[in-house]
Amino acid sequence: MMRFDGQNPDEIALKLAHIAWEAGRVLRGMESAFLDKRIKGDGTPTTAADLAAEELIIQRLDEAWSGVPVVAEETSSSTQTDEYFFLVDPLDGTGDFIHGTGEYSVNIALIRGDRPMAAVVAAPAMGTIWIAGETARTSALPAGETGFDWREAKVRPAPEKDLVALVSRRHGDIATEACLSVLSIGTRRMTSSALKFCLIASGEADVYVRCGPTMEWDTAAGDHILTCAGGSVVGPGGNPLTYGHEDKGYRNGPFAAIGDLTLAPRLDLPVSASAA
């Protein structure tokens, strides 16, 4: 089994970028097709596009790093982890994919121990991709054989007032509103999927709070990109999120994604049963 010997995190992230780009092309090709949507046991939708993208990603990961476990939303959501493992959401924002907003993403993260070490978030319909190994970078998605044009992704200092908060288009709750109420929010921007982490990483927003349920494959890639861009994703008590919690069904507790670390002490995230 390959243990990533001789590969630095930035090289791994570049490989993940090509895999996500390829999966994104599959998704773009299925956007206008009739999708047989079904509702999973957890109440979330899935489509043939989710399954097609996941199958391709798992195949490409196995070709590059044979034998490394892949925990993926659709077909491998109960896979056991190892020292190294991948977390994959082949289509984060399925509802937006179905409704044609374009705000969906492909998320892949390599985890070492309990934290990400390389990651990609690709937004195929928006034509943008973010990666991080040791550094966070972003590029337009290539239209042909031109290749990526990487530039650094970096958070911005939080303004004294009028913070930009990213809120979910389809998820809201009282606890989240209570956390945001302690901050000087000037703008609330509705954005879906892991794009919220990446917009903060690119200096376009300041905070994203989520107290409702999420899964590890929803957050791991965006968490790593934002962290490498100078921000942080913290749970109750200000601790970083950790990954590989098979005993919790790979479910996250409440968290806040922030660009400026000075915002962290002002947030009071509730402690949920899944975070305990």
Describe the overall structure.
With 276 residues, this protein is α+β, with helices and mostly antiparallel strands. Helices cover 26% and strands 24% of the residues. It has 6 helices and 14 strands. The strands form 4 sheets. Strands 3-4-5-6-7-8-9 form a 7-stranded mixed β-sheet. Helix 1 packs antiparallel against helix 2 (48-64). The longest helix is centred in the N-terminal third of the chain and has 22 residues, at 9-30.
Helix amount, in percent? 25-40%
Q: What structural class do the secondary elements suggest?
A: alpha+beta
SSE string, helices as H and strands as E: HEEHEEHEEEEEEHEHEHEE
Number of strands: 14
- Proportion of residues in extended strands: 15-25%
- Mind describing the biggest β-sheet? 7 strands, mixed
From the alpha-carbon coordinates, what is the Rg to the nearest angstrom?
A: 17 Å
Shape: globular
Q: Can you tell me the residue ranges where pLDDT is under 50 for at least 5 consecutive residues?
A: none
Number of helices: 6
Strands of the biggest beta sheet: in what spatial order?
A: 3-4-5-6-7-8-9
Overall residue-averaged pLDDT value: 88
Distance N to C terminus:
34 Å
